[in-house]
Amino acid sequence: MIIVSVTGPTTRRALDQIAESSRFADLFELRLDLISHPDMARLIRATTKPCVATCRPVWEGGEFRGPERKRIEILKEAAVKGARYVDLELEAGAAADEFLRLGNRPKVIISRHLSSCRGINVPHVYAALHATRAEIIKFAFPATDSYQIRHVIDFLERARSDRRKAIAIAMGEYGQASRVLYRKLGGWATYAAPENGRAAASGQIPASELKGLYRADRLTGRTRVFGVVGNPLGQSKGVYIHNALMKLSSQDAVYCKFPVCNLAAFMRYVAPVLSGCSVTIPYKEKILKYLDEADSIARGIGAVNTVVRRGRRLKGTNTDAAGALDAIERVMKVRGKRILIVGAGGAARAIAYESVRRGASVLIANRTALRARKLVRELHTHALDSNVRYAAVGDLTGNEFEILVNATSVGMIPHVHLSPVPKVLLTEKVVFDAVYNPPVTQLLKDAVRAGAQIISGKEMYLNQAALQFELYTGKVPDRRLMRRILTRMLTSH
Ligand code: NAP
């Protein structure tokens, strides 16, 4: 069940929201505390789906400020005019009992909304809700980290073993996956934002996205869950690419965003639900110690961007390295070539390691020389010594390398006019920029003018994501679809 919360704030706007969300909603929730002077009869008539009437008081996180008696009258009126469900707070006490005594019409949702995630006691909250005779029990709290989805898992497991219809939601950006995964975790329903309207609660996803992008209403207990782990995640492109690929190849799988603050807690409580994940800044190195194994590439680089579950074991690998080198090698084979890598962060490390592994020699330059020297030393410990050296950009003439790689963030939006190297170094080289947003950076523009062959970071992004998809599903992804989605996302900025 996808319940679209209708928030108004006028009857007119509420009617528009109902019309626009109708094809995505299984139920509508009329937020009578958010719609001013609601014309209830019109609204309920307009909902072609069953209706939940909610008039949330300020003491439970809503906006209704009137007397309790009035609030209950509003809900009774909604029931008389055809609302199939009313939502009442556990704390409403006698008022809730009044509705429960009416029997099955309207059906009652008894809910508990916590205002903080501190000290959540799921057994206690569950027991209090379970003790009511409500048709459906509902629990919501604001999450400050993705690992707190554990409370949703715990609550819904209890409800399942008691055969209770239950809804549990971790609110806010950190809990969004709990809204997508409601069926996987055994929830009866999830709440969605109306199309073109205010979300009733933080983290609500529009119903069109829940259905279209995540196929949330089709997930089952057997659905395999993937996602991206990092922080911040912003506009994760992986969510759009992997979900589209999974849908196209009819995989019973979904890909969510997991913005994580406490990696140890996430790996302990939520990772057991995952079949795999992409790992991004700042966890590519830190995740290694939580894995059962890592392949030689990930170990050599010291960073993991992909985790896959094999039975009970989590295995790490790194597709950034091959993603970059495969992109470069479509233009020039690197064996026997000299590559200048500007940058000494995670991307530089992966590209340097894989370049040497494929037979190139590497010069590493970086704004912070100390960091570049440290990277050279670390790569030496992997017996790559003769092929990795330090360089200072200012000392170079251009005769020292054939391929130039930008592995810094210089040139990324919003600083699109910056380039990490002077133009004189670019003449007739092969130039690869790991930056993919914008897809054609200032460095690449300068390189074209200097007669160089260029490769966009977009190619690396597509390669590493394609390799991930193969690892997740065993299927070859549709590259054209991936390119179309990424191009749309990058140009839409
Ligand atoms: P990182 O570990 O944070 O490293 C950042 C690097 O950029 C460091 O070498 C840093 O130099 C340098 N840098 C930052 N600002 C600079 C400035 N103003 N002037 C000179 N150097 C500067 O980041 P990362 O993960 O390696 O990522 C680097 C870039 O690669 C990012 O743009 C990222 O989007 C891109 N990337 C692309 C893909 C892809 O699929 N295309 C995949 C991964 C990464 P200091 O050491 O002096 O701070």
| Share in β-strands | 15-25%
* Extended strand count: 20
What's the end-to-end separation, in Å?
34 Å
**Roughly what percent helix?**
25-40%
Bound molecules: NADP nicotinamide-adenine-dinucleotide phosphate
On the 0-100 scale, what is the average pLDDT? 95
Biggest sheet descriptor: 8 strands, parallel
Residue windows where pLDDT falls under 50 for at least 5 positions: none
| Order of strands in the sheet with most strands | 7-6-5-4-3-2-1-8
- The rounded Rg comes to 27 Å
The count of helical stretches stands at 17
Give the overall shape, derived from the CA principal axes.
Answer: elongated
Decide which structural class fits the backbone: alpha/beta
Q: Would you write up a description of this structure?
A:
- The chain has helices spanning 11-21, 40-46, 68-80, 94-101, 122-130, 149-161, 176-180, 207-212, 237-248, 263-269, 296-301, 319-329, 346-357, 369-384, 442-449, 457-473, 479-491; strands at residues 2-6, 27-31, 51-54, 85-89, 107-113, 136-142, 165-171, 190-192, 224-230, 253-259, 276-279, 293-294, 306-310, 313-317, 338-342, 361-365, 388-390, 403-406, 430-433, 453-455.
- By secondary structure, the protein is of the alpha/beta class.
- Strands 7-6-5-4-3-2-1-8 form an eight-stranded parallel beta sheet. A six-stranded mixed beta sheet has the order 10-9-11-13-14-12.
- A hairpin with a 2-residue loop joins strand 13 and strand 14.
- Helix 5 (122-130) runs parallel beside helix 6 (149-161) and helix 12 (319-329) packs across helix 13 (346-357).
- Residues 281, 320, 323, 343-348, 366-368, 371, 407-410, 412, 420, 434-436, 457, 460-461, 464 line the site of NADP nicotinamide-adenine-dinucleotide phosphate (NAP).
